[in-house]
Write a sequence for this structure.
């Protein structure tokens, strides 16, 4: 009975369709012969500036050079034209032409960032209904497996050598030693230090407000000594209350180039720094390793400013998250100075 009803309904629907086509003066063959209208898909040269203007400054800084390379290779092609195989070919082209550095790993980082830059483009294209999710070719190209980091904690005597060389060489030892102490005490990233403003200083509680990658932010305890040096630096170099704190002697804000010049100079005075490719991020490893060994994983995780993820381990840490007072105790022990919150 159900089958008869279904057949009858199908017959009625077919007859209705035929009647409608007759009234419109069309034949079924006309529907097959006429191509369906296609969406207007922009080229890479047209779409990359749109996405670049929609993302954060950090994302634009990370992917900008790779979007430029994509535009050079595929600028006049539409987003829906490249295949996963062509993306793999582009990845190999980028890897084979990457600048060779002593700490390079065969262009793995360049390949990873290129794929991430493409995925960012296509993710926006999906949101704009320019392509279907199943037609996203960047999803079908795996990123190269990330190798373990070669960075590690710096030994105390080596850290003393770094600080001594920074304090006795260069054209602005006061600035360089302040940068090193800021990163050693807080384990902050470069972005956190460069984003620091005079208004982010809380001298009463010895806290600074760090704004780092991924739009994360946290209140980080520091020693009274570092707080005094930061305040004096801002005052002497005329840093606006809502402007960048770290500045050159003439008042111009520093950039990442100051870090590059600092470690290049330290490498000339300390050959092992150049050999091991020591950078400011090694100080983050050094401090967090010490905090974890002496105060446990929960305090080290909060000290680092790490946020929750979707893993089971991270879910557990939501119940054992350290407080700012516990971080202040770690700072007091690290600097051998009392802290108001400890």
């Amino acid at each position: 009975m159900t089958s008869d009803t279904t057949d009858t309904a199908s017959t009625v629907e077919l007859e209705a369709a035929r009647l409608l086509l007759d009234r419109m003066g069309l034949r079924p063959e006309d529907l097959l012969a006429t191509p369906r209208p296609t969406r207007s898909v922009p080229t890479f040269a047209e779409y990359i500036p749109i996405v670049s203007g929609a993302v954060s400054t950090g994302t634009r800084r990370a992917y900008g050079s790779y979007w430029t390379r994509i535009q050079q290779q595929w600028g006049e092609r539409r987003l829906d034209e490249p295949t996963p195989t062509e993306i793999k070919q582009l990845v190999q082209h980028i890897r084979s032409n990457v600048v060779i550095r002593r700490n390079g790993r065969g262009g793995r980082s360049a390949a990873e960032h290129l794929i991430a830059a493409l995925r960012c483009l296509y993710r926006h294209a999906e949101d704009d209904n320019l392509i279907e999710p199943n037609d996203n070719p960047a999803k079908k190209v795996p990123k190269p497996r990330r190798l373990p980091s070669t960075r590690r904690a710096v030994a105390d005597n080596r850290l003393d050598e770094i600080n001594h060389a920074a304090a006795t060489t260069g054209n602005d030892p006061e600035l360089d030693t302040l940068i090193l102490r800021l990163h050693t005490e807080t384990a902050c990233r470069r972005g956190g230090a460069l984003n620091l403003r005079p208004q982010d200083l809380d001298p009463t509680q010895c806290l600074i407000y760090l704004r780092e990658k991924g739009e994360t932010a946290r209140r980080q305890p520091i020693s009274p000594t570092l707080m005094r040096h930061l305040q004096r630096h801002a005052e002497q170099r005329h840093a606006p209350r809502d402007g960048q704190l770290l500045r050159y002697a003439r008042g111009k804000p520093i950039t990442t180039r100051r870090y590059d010049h600092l470690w290049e100079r330290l490498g000339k005075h300390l050959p092992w720094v150049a050999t091991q490719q020591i950078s400011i991020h090694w100080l983050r490893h050094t401090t967090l390793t010490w905090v974890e060994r002496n105060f446990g994983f929960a305090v080290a995780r909060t000290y680092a400013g790490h946020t929750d993820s979707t893993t089971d381990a991270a879910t557990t840490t939501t119940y054992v998250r350290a407080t700012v007072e516990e971080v202040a105790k770690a700072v007091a022990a690290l600097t051998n100075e009392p802290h108001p919150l400890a």
Q: What stands out?
A: Residues 156-335 form a domain with the hpI Integrase; Chain A fold (CATH 1.10.443.10). Residues 102-106 have pLDDT under 50 and may be disordered.
